[in-house]
Amino acid sequence: MIGNRLTSGRLIRTVLPAEVEHVVALHARARATYYPDGVPQDGTDWTAAWRSALTRPGGRVLCVVEAGRIVGLASFRTPGDGPRDVVKLFQFHVDPDHWRRGVGGALHTACVEEWQADGRRTAVLDVHVDNRRAQGFYRRQGWVPEPAEPGDHHLLMRFAVPGE
Q1: Does the model's pTM come out above 0.85?
Q2: Hey, what domains does the chain have and what are their CATH numbers?
């Protein structure tokens, strides 16, 4: 696990369990941008889900802090039934007020550094098919989409973690 790092006035560190409400709020703001008809209410208790992510053994939740405020976050871990050299990026969000300011790139770089340190060779993620902005971001970082089945709501993307 890599410790806190300061980059261009941004602190990148592990999210603290006491910050769960800030994480849930940022998650909701970011998700709202790619659901034109509003975020679906599927019954998910996002506070409980994020609390679980923050305390799950083997899981990591990183955040970007600017001026004392969380403006980006990423949650990843090895899937329970997956190979040890594969990591799944479950959540990656930047506050919409901070888009195009380098927050996402800095956070992605921190994730890759963690994956390299942990010996990961491949990262995977699912991105909503309507979230073209996120798909473009991931492609610019080097992620490659897998062929999608018609009717899928998510696109699987794969990233080859560079060797150190």
Answers
A1: yes
A2: 5-160 (3.40.630.30)
Residue 59: count of CB within 10 angstroms of its CB: 14
From residue 161, give the alpha-carbon distance in Å to each of 14, 15, 38, 88.
21, 23, 34, 12
pLDDT tens column, 148-158: 777 778 899 99
pLDDT tens column, 81-132: 778 899 999 999 999 999 889 999 999 999 999 999 999 999 999 998 888 8
Place of tokens 């899928």: 152
Q: What is the DSSP string of 91-102?
A: EEEE-GGGTTTT
Please state, in angstroms and rounded to a whole number, the distance separating the CA atoms of residues 79 and 87.
Answer: 7
44 φ/ψ angles, rounded to the nearest 5 degrees: -70, 130
What is the distance between the alpha carbons of residues 156 and 89, in angstroms, rounded to a whole number? 11
Cβ atoms 82, 122 nearer than 8 A: no
Q: Rounded CA gap, 35 and 27, in Å? A: 13
How is residue 12 annotated by DSSP?
E
The distance of Cα 150 from the centroid of its chain, to the nearest Å, equals: 25
Question: What is the spatial distance between Cα 41 and Cα 55, in angstroms, rounded to a whole number?
Answer: 25
